[in-house]
Design a protein that fits this description.
homodimer; alpha+beta; Gyrase A, domain 2; PCD_sf (chains A, B)
């Protein structure tokens, strides 16, 4: 079963640490966004590769764009029409793999 | 030495096969763009990984975004202010690694 869209108090609780860690909520849809900047392309793509393995494990994939050493990420769960626990889990994994958590 | 921006007849000659292979020229700046669609995320990211190695070898990196099994690419050479032989080389490598050339 896919997780449900986070709303209300459970959402606030789930997002608190992410928002404190630099994640923001997209304005045009229900999604979490963050820009990661690394030392160079090699470090950026190495991080993307590790995140890709988590994505396959969770069967939940980020929308992301990479320009040289920067990666912009948007996380949302299409099936649920918004941010779910899967996105929270993926966001935390991204921070952890970037050495930020 | 970085290559020079392609213009005129040499540009037309260099781009002919790429345009025939589905590459187009961006409207808002001098760049080559293409959308690659793979069977799934694993295949898409596997391709990105192989392209990343070419990018490091050439010291020339694509601007690209990935949403599940699709990857949108923009190629331009910032130092030269537009499309150069490096972009042509990278575009051809991307097609080759995608099994399209």
């Amino acid at each position: 079963m896919r997780p449900a869209k986070l709303e209300g108090e459970p959402r606030a609780a789930a997002l608190a640490s992410l928002l404190a860690a630099g994640w923001t909520e997209a304005e045009d849809r229900d999604a979490l966004i963050k820009r990661f900047v690394f030392r160079d392309f090699s470090e950026a793509f190495g991080w993307m590769t590790r995140v890709a393995m988590v994505a396959e494990t969770l069967d939940h994939h980020p929308e992301w764009s990479n320009v040289h050493r920067a990666v912009e990420v948007e996380l949302t769960t299409h099936d649920a029409g918004g941010v779910t626990g899967l996105d929270v889990e993926m966001a935390a994994a991204m921070d952890r793999l970037a050495g930020l958590a």
